[in-house]
Design goal:
302 residues, alpha/beta, seven-stranded mixed β-sheet, two-stranded antiparallel ribbon, 13 helices, 18% strand, binds S-adenosylmethionine, COMT_C
């Protein structure tokens, strides 16, 4: 597997792989995420674990708390996890790359970029903000405000916002705080001031795969009322498991999610079903190549 190189009798040298494991973004995932596999996998007969508070992770770490509740109470592990998430994306095709998702065409990102203008994108559960940073690097002319939301301990880890990003603490099991209004008086005010439109896009990356369907519905139903019909879009950046021939990178992530949260990666049919239950219709699914995360775009039904 080329984990170490052999340079002579009893003599070894590091390889690119082992060197990579010394970098926090790669190393920190192992400490936390590999442990459930060494514990007891709770698979009874043909049933996968389904209880997010009683799966392999909880057995390995002797807890009855869902993964993110457990993590939120342990700053040292939270830091490891957030570092891991920064590394997880590296080297992969991203939806903001040229030729993946037609960002300008779909989001009309061509409004002036000052604080009087509407929010372009709210990154809900956005971690340390690596996606917004990547978006700014890959689209330096991007217009509209960018808002990062996560739990207080994660936002605290960032410290100071980089230029063009607004940091907010937000629990995604509560109503979305960047919201559009739906009454005529407010619409008129918005036309005059350019404010309070709600976001053009609410974005969830690697968030919904952390949760079972019931929890996902709570998260989605807290975003939907904030979305302005015909204007706001929901963007979900997740694996879409093909019905046959799924790539190893997706099936191994499915295993990891089972061990970590008693959850799973979803097929397109499962995504459409979940979003439909939350009052959303899928307006497109963009997949660059097998094995990379797709971008699912949805709008409110009404
Ligand atoms: C798997 S990470 C994904 C982070 C980021 N979107 C990314 O792709 O790197 C899930 C994120 O959800 C956040 N999270 C978990 N529970 C949350 C809650 N109740 N409200 C807001 N964010 C939460 C975590 O802190 C974490 O940053």
């Amino acid at each position: 597997m080329n984990i170490v190189g052999e340079t002579g009798a009893d003599e070894f040298s590091p390889t690119h792989f082992s060197n990579a494991l010394t970098i926090p973004t790669y190393r920190d995932g192992d400490q936390l995420l590999a442990r459930p596999f060494t514990g007891r996998l709770v698979i009874s007969k043909t049933q996968n674990p389904r209880n997010i508070a009683d799966g392999p992770f909880q057995h390995a770490h002797h807890t009855k708390e869902p993964f993110f509740v457990w993590l939120g109470e342990r700053p040292e592990h939270s830091e490891h996890f957030n570092n891991y998430m920064s590394g997880y994306r590296q080297g992969k095709r991203r939806w903001m790359d040229e030729g993946f998702y037609p960002l300008k065409e779909r989001l009309g990102a061509d409004t002036p970029n000052d604080d009087k203008n509407p929010v372009l994108l709210v990154d809900v559960g956005g971690g340390l903000g690596h996606d917004l940073e990547e978006l700014k690097v890959k689209h330096p002319g991007i217009r509209g405000r960018l808002v990062l939301q996560d739990q207080p301990e994660v936002i605290a880890q960032i410290g100071k916002a980089s230029d063009g990003t607004e940091l907010t603490t937000h629990d995604f099991f509560t109503p979305q705080s960047v919201k559009g209004s739906h009454q005529n008086w407010f619409e008129l005010r918005e036309k005059l001031t350019g404010r309070d439109l709600g976001a053009r896009a609410y974005y969830l990356h690697s968030v919904l795969h952390d949760w079972d369907d019931a929890s996902c519905l709570k998260i989605l139903r807290n975003v939907v009322p904030a979305m302005r019909p015909g204007y706001s879009k929901l963007l979900i950046n997740e694996n879409v498991v093909p019905d046959v021939g799924a790539a190893w990178s997706i099936t191994s992530m499915d295993w990891l999610m089972m061990a970590l949260g008693a959850v799973r990666e979803r097929t397109e049919k499962q995504w459409r079903g979940l979003l439909g239950q939350a009052g959303l219709k899928v307006t497109g699914v963009w997949t660059y190549e097998q094995g990379t995360e797709s971008l699912i775009e949805a709008e409110t039904e009404t």
